[in-house]
């Protein structure tokens, strides 16, 4: 089945830019979705179809996807952005279609 | 406002069964797919099961780790998705989330999530 690889952790200072990567074989040919999860809370969709933001998600959150890497970018990072971030693709025809990365813990220094 | 509320979790002995419910409101339930996930500190977030809407055949998918013991179903008249868990094992201990599956072009993402229900399997 398809595998997504994320770095376990990323650290960034407030006001700087955080980039969280999601690697997969030719992931650029797939649609990637991103979720934010804070401790004790349910995941929240922050980016879908590579770069679209649901209503209510700040413009500071953006996404890109090309080649073997998709990237979630958070500009002007705030303390409230500290969370785990997961990427996800849908692997049509697979016996495990909902594929998630292992998650990246974003720490705001 | 879209809301998903899980219920049915609790403390259960190994080998027993449990049915989780996900009650939806704020949208036309029958038009959307639904999915179940679980999460533990050790294994992280794990997709468990998925059911399409009737228009897409109402078909189901399961993670290999639960196939044969878990059954997902839906009652569109009540706006509820269910997860039947049989022969519970200690490794099924987790917080279980339900989520709404949305799609364009038949690839799905999960745009709304419930707050989760805790299932603890212990003798």
Give the structural class of chain A: mainly beta
Order of helices and strands of chain A: EEEEEEEEE
Principal-axes geometry of chain A comes out as: globular
What does the largest sheet of chain B look like?
A: 7 strands, mixed
Largest interface by Cβ-Cβ < 8 Å: A-B, 26 and 26 residues
Q: How large, in whole angstroms, is the Cα Rg of chain A? A: 13 Å
Portion of residues in beta strands of chain B equals: over 45%
Averaged pLDDT of chain B: 96
* Gyration radius of chain B, rounded: 14 Å
Structural class of chain B: mainly beta
Task: Provide an overview of this structure.
By secondary structure, chain A is mainly β. Chain A contains no helices and nine strands. Helix content of chain A is 0%, strand content 43%. In chain A, the strands form two sheets. In chain A, strands 1, 3, 4, 7, 8 and 9 form a six-stranded mixed β-sheet that branches. Chain A is globular. Chain A starts with 8 loop residues before the first strand and ends with a strand. Chain B has 123 residues and is mostly beta strands. In chain B, strands 2, 4, 5, 6, 9, 10 and 11 form a seven-stranded mixed β-sheet that branches. In chain B, strands 1-3-8-7 form a four-stranded antiparallel β-sheet, with no helix packed on it. The mean pLDDT of chain B is 96. The interface between A and B is medium-sized, with 26 and 26 residues.
């Amino acid at each position: 089945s398809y595998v997504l690889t994320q770095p376990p952790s990323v650290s960034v200072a407030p006001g700087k830019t955080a980039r969280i990567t999601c690697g997969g074989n030719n992931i650029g040919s797939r649609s990637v979705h991103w979720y934010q999860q804070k401790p004790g809370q349910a995941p929240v969709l922050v980016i879908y179809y590579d770069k679209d933001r649901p209503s209510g998600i700040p413009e500071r959150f953006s996404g890109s996807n090309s080649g073997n890497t998709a990237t979630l970018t958070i500009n002007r990072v705030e303390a409230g952005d500290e969370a785990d971030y997961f990427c996800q693709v849908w692997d049509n025809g697979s016996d495990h279609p909902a594929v998630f990365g292992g998650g990246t813990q974003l720490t705001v220094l | 406002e879209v809301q998903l509320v899980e219920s049915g979790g609790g403390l259960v002995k190994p080998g027993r069964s449990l049915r989780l419910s996900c009650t939806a409101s704020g949208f036309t339930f029958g038009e959307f797919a639904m999915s179940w996930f679980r999460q533990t500190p050790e294994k992280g977030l794990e997709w468990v099961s998925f059911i399409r809407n009737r228009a897409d055949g109402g078909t189901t998918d399961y993670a290999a780790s639960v196939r044969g013991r878990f059954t997902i179903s839906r009652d569109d008249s009540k706006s509820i998705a269910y997860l039947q868990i049989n022969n519970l094992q200690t490794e099924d201990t987790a917080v279980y989330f339900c989520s709404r599956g949305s799609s364009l072009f038949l690839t799905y993402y999960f745009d709304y999530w419930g707050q989760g229900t805790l299932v603890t399997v212990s003798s």
